[in-house]
Design a protein that fits this description.
The chain folds into two domains: about 190 residues, Glycogen Phosphorylase B (Rossmann fold), CATH 3.40.50; about 190 residues, Rossmann fold. Helix content is about 40%, strand content about 15%. Strand 10, helix 13 and strand 11 form a beta-alpha-beta unit. The mean pLDDT is about 90.
């Protein structure tokens, strides 16, 4: 017990004091070593992929594949914070996703993960999320603070506070590629390093949302000649008080009514159930749900006549839908790329807005807000089916003012430009 306490105390002091003090020097030495390499030896880049839904690096990876200065490798690494069943599902989904795109990857072995530091020896590592203990110990970010760690936020941040901007990861990473100048200002205000490692490149999913064509085949075919409105229901995972998010997720209130509504309105709507990836794990451990009920519930959505279960990519789903109902922070922004109506369900909006940044409050202004089940049915009947959408002009302005990447370039190109400039120039920045 005493040894464990001393170990934790030493680790705390190391991360908070000594490593913070020397991180800039670590980065300078790494960059100097890269610049002194023999001609033709590429920069080794690793992208950790945790699950398909949170994969943000596709376009950046593709640019690096075409650039001989880089050797990019994707490593599958499901989150150990999820139930084993979900880890296996996530691993299988990632195998299918990358294989379909003919992209090579280092597969995951949940019982014996690849030793990335030994076998690949990366110079730059891109992480899916900025949390310690999320991936297996061999892949955890604390093992790579001696390298050049980089990161795209996995969500379009609307909230403010330590968890968004001021963990060890945020302060010890080499580059944080943020979405807007408003997010940079938040980092400058909250992070211990004053956001010195932040660069504004745009939101990574923008490169998908802004493409010209989208696949409507993501929707289950219903060949009966009826024109249905396509609605997405996207519940958050925070059904308990964990992380101080109690009250955000309305899943427990909406779960059964949503299935009933889908059945009753089967000739008018088609609904895609798009849960947060972690909701499955949370329901498995919930005293009123558990594995059997949860699996049965998910299966009903997957097998329903006018319903479907979506656990992976969502860009095509968003952009070919007619509306969304949700309580997920990031989707408050992301769904505005579609410029279609969206209902955010929340029973205490004032408390939620008190946790939001200026950018977040601006995003919420352009969503319809509901607190009870009647608000959900009212939104579907009046706005989605009835076409009465007074918030449309505001959504279109928000899209133009906040969602387009800077410099007239793609997000991936903005990112690669900064990496190339930072590594191959003589600057120590």
């Amino acid at each position: 017990m005493k040894g464990s306490f001393l170990q934790k105390a030493w680790r705390y002091l190391y991360l908070h004091c000594w490593q913070y003090y020397r991180i800039d020097d670590i980065h300078r030495r790494r960059l100097a070593a890269l610049r002194q390499r023999s001609a033709g030896e590429p920069v080794r880049v690793v992208f950790f992929a945790m699950n398909v839904s949170l994969w943000r690096y596709q376009h950046l990876y593709e640019l690096m594949r075409l650039d001989k200065r880089f050797a990019a490798t994707i490593v599958l690494s499901p989150s150990i914070d999820y139930a084993r069943e979900q880890q296996e599902r996530d691993a299988q989904a990632m195998r299918g996703y990358f294989s379909a795109k003919h992209i090579p990857f280092v597969d995951c072995n949940l019982d014996s993960p690849v030793d990335v530091k030994r076998d690949i020896d990366p110079d730059v590592i891109f992480y899916p999320q900025p949390y310690e203990g999320l991936l297996c110990p061999q892949h955890d970010c604390v093992e790579f603070f001696d390298r050049l760690i980089a990161y795209y936020p996995y969500a379009f941040w609307t909230s403010t506070g330590k968890w968004s901007y001021n963990f060890h990861f945020h302060n010890l990473a080499w580059r944080l590629y943020y979405s807007t100048t408003m997010h940079l200002k938040e980092a400058q205000s909250i992070a211990w390093n004053k956001g010195s490692n932040v660069r504004v490149v745009g939101y990574p999913n923008a490169d998908d949302f802004l493409r010209a064509n989208f696949d409507e085949k993501v929707w289950k075919p219903i060949n009966d000649g009826v024109d249905r409105k396509r609605i997405i229901w996207a519940p958050h995972y925070s059904i308990t008080a964990e992380f101080g998010l109690a009250g955000r997720s309305q899943f427990l209130m909406m779960a059964e009514p949503m299935l009933t509504l889908a059945h009753q309105m089967r000739d008018q709507v088609q609904i895609a159930f798009k849960p947060h990836p972690r909701l499955l794990t949370e329901l498995y451990s919930h005293p009123d749900w558990g594995r059997e009920r949860t699996d049965s519930y998910y299966r009903q959505w997957a097998e329903g006549e006018n319903t479907q279960l979506e656990m992976g990519e969502f860009v095509d789903l968003f952009m070919t839908s007619d509306a969304m109902v949700h309580d997920s922070g990031s989707f408050v922004v992301e769904y505005h790329y579609s410029q279609r109506p969206v209902l955010f369900v929340c029973q205490d909006l004032d408390a939620l807005l008190a946790t939001q940044s200026d950018f977040g409050r601006e995003a919420y202004r352009h969503s319809y807000i509901g607190a009870k089940w009647d608000d959900v049915t009212g939104f579907i009947n009046r706005v989605v089916l009835g076409g009465k959408d007074p918030m449309r002009p505001g959504r279109e302005r928000f899209y133009k003012d906040y969602l387009l990447p800077p410099h007239g370039k793609t997000v991936a190109q903005n990112t690669l430009d900064d990496i190339v400039e930072s590594i191959f120039s003589d600057s120590d920045d």
